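Supplementary Methods, section 5.1.

A reviewer requested that the exact input to the structure prediction be made available. We therefore reproduce it here, unchanged from the version used in the analyses.
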Amino acid sequence: MKTQYLSFFTLLMVSVFINAKELDGSRQPTEADYTNGEKWVWKYKGVTTSGEVRAEGTDTKKIVSQNDGLYMVTQHAVIPLAEIVQPVASKTPRYSWPLHVGKKWKFEEHWTSEDGTKGSTVQHAEVLSFKKETVEAGTFMAYTIKYQGRVSNSRGFSADTEDIHVYAPNLKTFIKLTQSQGDYVYVEELIEYTIE
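The structure derived from this sequence is encoded token-by-token as follows.
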């Protein structure tokens, strides 16, 4: 009887540890979560319902170490990782930490594009699931988050939007993103994740 109780207790503790680890993955990443040489590569494509391709290519981000710390290198910039992992202060953030299935919040962003056009995105978000998801880069435990709302800009454009983010805590980023705006669908999928 004592042995059965001990086995049950051990299994219970392992289960609690695994669940706590998964919950811990729902928090916002910190600088300590990143590793020098980490690299993510996504492929992306944006197509209208009439078949016109408006965007297509790849996007790469990599963590590099320099004298004073870690940096994220993107196509257009080298950004101190300390800036990227700043705690989210917005009351309407893209990701509302900690994530958990069933959580809901409002995402609101006001932006200016490279050509000077001003716009806003207002969406209601909900975490739909946390399970294994497969993309070209592999299979990862990930949250699926659905965003629904509207986007508009200063040039008179306005459209209903639906975005699906598949966010993998262990990779500290989304592994798939699908955005629908009117007659335009944009899909971005992780095709490579490595640590050199």
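The first strand starts at residue 38 and ends at 48. These observations are discussed further in the main text.
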